[in-house]
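Posting for a labmate who doesn't have an account.
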Amino acid sequence: MRRIPLLALGVTAWLAACSGPAPSQKLRAPAKVALETVAPKALPALVPGAAPRDGSLTIVQADMNLPAAAQAINTAGLGATSVPGAKDLSIPGVSPTLIKAEVLLDRAGFSPGVIDGRPGDNLDRALEAFAQAHGLMWDGRLSSAIWDTLAAGDSTPPVRSYQITAQDVAGPFIGTPPKDYAEMAKLPGLTYSDPSQMLAERFHMDGKLLKALNPRVDFAKAGTSIIVTSPRDGPRDLKVARVEVDKTREAIRAYDSSNRLVAYYPASVGSSERPAPSGVWAVKAVAPHPAYYYDPKRLTFAPEGATGRLKIAPGPNNPVGSTWIGLSVPTYGIHGSPDPSLVGKRQSHGCVRLTNWDALELGRSVKAGTQVSFVGEEARGARA
């Protein structure tokens, strides 16, 4: 595994107005996802190639080579915290049902953000958007109707094994990125910190969940078999005609030319110090692998270590992540994030922040001139 010095990166530079999460903002206390209570039932026999159902409990074909914790997720039913034989699933606060629900939402185009198996606003709002899109009632609970609709026609296990390749560990990696922007600007590239960060992002996982499902694993060793989630296969090819940024619900909705919702993403939108705009604007340009430019004459905030104009090289740990979608309102954009676990949980410096994988998909689906409307009112100050 190679670390700095980094290889030169062929990238596109772009003016970025935003930064990472405001350090003064506090994390929102996690909301509770209410699970509809179901009576425990005996698990039906698993038939190879089949996905038998038992009422509100959905069973998928189990890979018996997986550890019990992974099997618990793959066979989780509504409201389950465990299944017989999975006593080693002991990650505090993590629910097999919620991991499965998050993976199914991700595949269905209703992104929960980072997959972590924990209750919270991002998951609640993704479930609400999914329910509304399918004509289902949402009362704050993951009901059997929502669960069954999510699982209908999708028998692919939500977690699977993956063998780390030599390419995965080849790097370059930068270790823990500096927080000081002046120090960040000295690096020739803001690539991943280490293989575990890269793998977590590839599978849309929270890094803590990846490590909890793979205790004592060396992620820098090629040939190692690990347990990962199985979200959507890369960015989808969507035809987006308009984008709606909901400042109240902290989300982006993307619609096609027939006004059909084709994607939902959680987002961090604006801040009390620099609110996001209102009204109708448009995409001006899209830059994959953007460099980050800080100019104190154009912006109203000062990142740590920034005393003058700075250019920070591209990479997933760049302040605007892996994609920049510039808008017609000056210095504003929609972009990725170096820390997906904070999306929707901390305010931004005025722009709209998504996970890197959601920003990549949206960036590929819009073009110059695509309408972007800002609706609702954003939260003011620290979040409760």
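Reply:
Got it, the structure tokens are right above this. The radius of gyration is 21 Å.
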